[in-house]
Amino acid sequence: MSWIERIVESLAPLSIEQHDAKVMIAEWFYTGNAYDLEQPIEHCQLCGHPDIRYQFEIENEHTSNDLLVGSECIKRFRISAIDESGSRLSERASREKVDRDRSKLIQDAKQRRVVNALVALSIADEEFEIESFIKYYRERGAFTPNQLKTMIWRLKQHCIDFRPSDFKMILKRQREQDQLRRMEGWQVAQLWPCMSASQRSSYARRYGDPTT
Ligand SMILES: [Zn+2]
């Protein structure tokens, strides 16, 4: 079965148009509802593609039927997104909206993992003052070098599962840059996965690569 036949097979029972794939697809729009399943466990209900983690809801404007599909399908078949008043967006704006919504899901998942790791740490380590870290993270979306040094060390010590790359470093203020500058190379090496590519290259230019 070709992919266009597969699409028609998925959409026809839920659409008004029964034959012309293009007309059928045009009846559908992306509602703006998108979900993170946290694991790639679903199939795209449009093309059957397996291992879908992020689901995007599309709806038929006549029948109000809906399907959960992958973001690639919305882009490939040029399914339009809608604005707040329900008007259809242009093809370009629709693609941008899908990409934005997908990035937001990825970002939210990262934040959840960070908060979950810190909660696990606060249970394992009574001396860890979780509130100030969470408050700082909510306000700035990242941590200072000193905060990271404390957290990464404690997370490792208590064998708590975490992804270092989820914990972003902030280096905007002079105070934060000074914190990093005062650290030993081996300490910076531990925080290396928390640093962005540009933070790493600017550090390496000045002080050398601490991981080699
Ligand atoms: Zn698909």
Structure description:
- The chain has 212 residues and is α+β, with helices and mostly antiparallel strands.
- The chain folds into 2 domains: 3-103, no CATH class; 125-207, no CATH class.
- 50% of the residues lie in helices and 10% in strands.
- It is built from 9 helices and 4 strands, in the order H-H-E-E-E-H-E-H-H-H-H-H-H.
- A 4-stranded mixed β-sheet has the order 3-2-1-4.
- The protein is elongated and about 70 Å long.
- The model has no long low-confidence stretch (mean pLDDT 95).
- The protein binds zinc ion (ZN).
- Zinc ion binds at residues 44, 46-47, 49, 69-70, 73.
The structural domain count equals 2
Order of helices and strands: HHEEEHEHHHHHH
Structural class: alpha+beta
Could you tell me the mean pLDDT? 95
Distance between the termini: 52 Å
Residue runs with pLDDT of under 50 for 5 or more positions: none
Largest sheet at a glance?
Answer: 4 strands, mixed
The assembly state of the depicted protein chains is single chain
